[in-house]
Amino acid sequence: MTSVDDVVTRARVSKSAFYEFFESKEHCFREVLEEEGGALIHEVLTEAATGHDHHARLRLGISRFVRECFSRPDVARLLIVESVGLSEGVEVVRRQLQARFADAVAEEVRHAMTHDAFYADKDPAVFGRAVVGAVSDSVGYFLTHPGVDAESLASSLCVIFAP
After folding, report:
1. Which residue has the higher pLDDT, 88 or 50?
2. pTM of the model
3. What's the CATH code of the domain at 142?
4. What is the mean pLDDT of residues 3-21?
5. pLDDT recorded at residue 14
6. Residue 158: what are its φ and ψ, rounded to 5°?
């Protein structure tokens, strides 16, 4: 993980200025994760809400998440890779962000269960977590192992989770 010296050098501020705003490096990391990760999840959920049915909303949400992560790889790495297990406080923020996405997916599945055979036997909470896990893992992998573009990855994930 980046040191406070690295952060203040890159931000072009003094260490004392850094500590006026943050108690520690972990506090800074939590704040950045909340702000940047929160903005990313907000964009995902906002776009998903424009869909005309559950398939469209799931596809829009998954696709937006993938595209945002590919266009903002630093934020994606922060949310998907660097925050994992860093500290209890950071883990709480990461889980809250993931839960927002997973809960939105679960809600779509709950509504679809009565009229869509694909979702009829799915547990909404498990499905929501599975989507978030698979999408996050796939994005994390392909950000570090180039070979798939955002649109192809999003399309493949949508075939699996929102056929």
Report:
1. 50
2. 0.86
3. 1.10.357.10
4. 74
5. 75
6. -65, -35
